[in-house]
Design a protein that fits this description.
With 56 residues, the chain is mostly helical. The protein has helices at residues 8-26, 36-52. Helix 1 packs antiparallel against helix 2.
């Protein structure tokens, strides 16, 4: 399976989601704190999709 470099917006969107998930462990962020695990998973799934499909 060939992997591609994700586009910049895909990479940064995944980074923002994972960072928000990590921060929400220590600071209460509405909605994100309740779904911390799923926000982190969504960030990694977006990164995987950006690596599998040619986006740039």
């Amino acid at each position: 399976m060939p992997l591609h470099t994700p586009s910049a917006w895909t990479f940064w969107l995944s980074v923002v989601l994972v960072i928000l998930a990590i921060i929400s462990i220590y600071v209460r962020i509405p909605y994100i704190t309740v779904y911390t695990f799923w926000v982190a998973v969504a960030g990694y799934v977006i990164l995987v999709i950006g690596n599998i499909f040619k986006t740039a």
